[in-house]
Amino acid sequence: MSRTFVVTGAGSGIGAVLARRLIGRGDRLVVVARDADRAQDLLADLPGSTAVIADLADPASLEAAVATADLPSHIDAVVHAAGIVELGEVGALPVSAWTSQLAVNLVAPAELTRLLLPRVRAARGQVLFVNSGAGLTAHPQWSAYAASKHGLRALADALRGEEAAHGVRVTSVYPGRTATPMQAQVHAQEGAAYDPSRFIDPDSVAAAILAALDATPDAALTDITVRPGPR
Ligand SMILES: NC(=O)c1ccc[n+]([C@@H]2O[C@H](COP(=O)([O-])OP(=O)(O)OC[C@H]3O[C@@H](n4cnc5c(N)ncnc54)[C@H](OP(=O)(O)O)[C@@H]3O)[C@@H](O)[C@H]2O)c1
C-alpha cells in the first residue's frame, strides 16, 4: 500500500536518494523546498510529488508555510534530512554560524514536527531525524554542528517518550561521513582533497532510513548508526 512521506532536504545528497527511492516504489512524497524556484526544480525531478515552500533557516515562517500547503490529513512519516554545516574553532566561529546551524538542524525540525504531528498521529506514523556521528561525539572544529545534532538527539528521545501513547514511532539515524555535496563542502572547509570513494554511499544511508520506515508496527528502530565499512 502506498504511503505519504514528508521529506526535507530532498534536493540533494541523502534526502535526494531517499526521495527517488520512495517515488520509485510508488509512495506519495511531499518535499520541503526553500523557495518557489527550488520547489519547481524538485517537482520536475520527482513526478507526482507536492511541495511545502519553507526556508528552514527561518523556523518561525514554517507555521504559515504549512497552513497554506495542500497536505493530506494522514502523514505516514516525516523525514528530516535537511542540514547545514559550518566548521571552525569556538574561538573563531561567528554568532551567525551558531544561529544558522541551530535554526536549520534543530529548531526547524522541532517546529515542523510540531506542525505536522496531528497528521502523523492520525496515521500512527513515524518521525525520522537524520542525525550524525557528530550527534554522539563532538570533535574539535565541529562545536556548533555537533551541538545542533546533540540537540536533535534530545528532541528525538523526548518526542519518542511523548508520542508513544499516540502510536507514533521516532527514529534517529546517525551516519558517518557520507559522499554527498555536504561532504565535499566539509572537505573544502577542512582544506582537504575530496575522494568520495572513501565515504559511505548515500544509497546505504537511504537503505538504513527505509529499514526504519518499513519496520512493521510491532518494532521501532529507534537509533541506527551507519559507519563506513572496512576499506
Ligand atoms: N554527508 C555527510 O557526511 C553526513 C554525515 C552525517 C550526517 N549528515 C546529515 O545528513 C543530512 C543530509 O545531508 P547531506 O549530506 O545529504 O547534505 P546535502 O547534500 O548538503 O543536502 C542538504 C539538503 O538540505 C537542504 N537545506 C539546507 N538548508 C536549507 C534551508 N534553509 N531550507 C530548506 N532546505 C535546506 C538543502 O536544500 P537545497 O537542495 O535547496 O540546497 C539540501 O537539499 C543532514 O542532516 C546532514 O547533517 C550528513
Short summary of the structure?
The protein has 231 residues and is an alpha/beta fold. The protein is built from seven helices and seven strands; from the N terminus they run βαβαβαβαβαβααβ.
Tell me what the structure shows.
Strand 2, helix 2 and strand 3 form a beta-alpha-beta unit. By secondary structure, the protein is of the alpha/beta class. Helix 4 runs parallel beside helix 5. The relative contact order is 0.14. Helices cover 43% and strands 15% of the residues. It contains 7 helices and 7 strands; from the N terminus they run E-H-E-H-E-H-E-H-E-H-E-H-H-E. The structure holds NADP nicotinamide-adenine-dinucleotide phosphate (NAP). The site of NADP nicotinamide-adenine-dinucleotide phosphate (NAP) has 26 residues, from helix 1 and helix 6.
How do the helices and strands line up, and which of them pair or pack?
Blueprint: E1 4-8, H1 13-24, E2 28-33, H2 36-45, E3 50-53, H3 62-68, E4 77-80, H4 95-122, E5 126-130, H5 143-163, E6 169-175, H6 181-190, H7 202-213, E7 223-226
Parallel strand pairs: 1-2, 1-4, 2-3, 4-5, 5-6, 6-7
Helix pairs in contact: 1-7, 4-5
The structure holds NADP nicotinamide-adenine-dinucleotide phosphate.
NADP nicotinamide-adenine-dinucleotide phosphate binds next to helix 1 and helix 6.
